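Show me a record, fold above all:
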Amino acid sequence: MTEEQATTRRPLVVPLFLIAVAFVVLSPLYWRHVELRRINEAEIDHSERVVLYHVVYPVYQYAFGRLAAGELPLWNPHQHNGMPLHADPRVGLFQPLHLVHVFLPTHQAMAVHAFLCLSLMGFGAALFIRSLGVASVPAFFGGLVFAFSGASAGAMSHPPTAAALAWSPLAFWALHEHLRTWRWEFAALGSLFGALMLLSGSLIISVAMLCLFAPYAIAGMLWPLETEPPRLLRRLRSPLIMLALALLMAAVQWVPTVLWMRELDAPGELAWSLPLTMRPSGTFGDLGLQTLMARRGVTPRIGYVGIGTLLMLPPVLTHWIRRRHAAYFLLAAAVFVMLHVLGAGGRTHALPHSAFAYAYPAVFAVAVLAALGVDRLLVEPQGHRTPALLPPALLVLFVAAALFYVSTAQVRGYVLAFLVVLVPLFFLRHRALLFLGG
């Protein structure tokens, strides 16, 4: 079976509905255990509290309070002796997800906004992964990795970043569907989701995610997925039209922003600002420790993706059916992880310049790879065409042994818990057991 044939399996309505319901239920639970847990004074990140309560909270309370009163807030008189509000891209005045602040008190709206963003992040990632031909359970696993990683834990206290991440996987899904079918309705959806990303208020995150999309679009134009694609000129033209439409729909924000930035001495500080205060990973060793040193009751760091994710990555190396997507996201993950580490260590000044921005496309790529790894392990028997299970099983056992040797007692417990589920699946290949194991 070729990858082109494998990707013809389309998402089913019922599994996707159940996945959406699952993320709606899990998002408040994640918020409660990560954002509202009891912590000691030594762990409190005071700089994050300063950003949240002295910058984000008052701006949103004033801006959307004016909107609730039926006024368009063009000016903010309460900061820096007065400054433009509509033209400030960091506010995201025209972001639909931010409208919860119009109907709810600010402290409640912040929580509801986080629930919406987490749900869209998980569902959107699962929808994209499912559209690659991956089964529903592995797609759900990938959505969990993207929505509930350490990177998302740091983004939920900054609504513009959370909103940009919420629309990113949906934009990627629409782009993939357009490259697969070349239907203009998917191009329109991609333009809409792209515009919503740009209207989020976090330009740097939007650009970072677009850096993940752009090579994927170029590859899809030059080496199309379907066997009888349209002519090259149309393939080259349609993604550019998608980008132009997205910019046109977002013009209500970026046009006044550009006019204002022309009057500033340092416009780059406004356009590329990302006021997150999580600790980035200055070395590859530190990045690994942020996952291996996870403890209950402590906010997960930006590099935390879960022990189960690390165990599910090796099987993707043997996933020949979807080798095209596996190769792309392996390369993307490596590039963005390297940029994050180099940026955190002050060894690169490329745009976007914040080390945090590189972490989010890296986590998305890792989430897709983990889903592909689960899909490889849970492949159903298909006679002589069933891919051999021994190579990925040996890779998982090798990584599990390495993690067990170098990790703490709690991480060893996680490793053993996964092996209790996985090892029986290596021998019992019944469809029901594969589903329950997933």
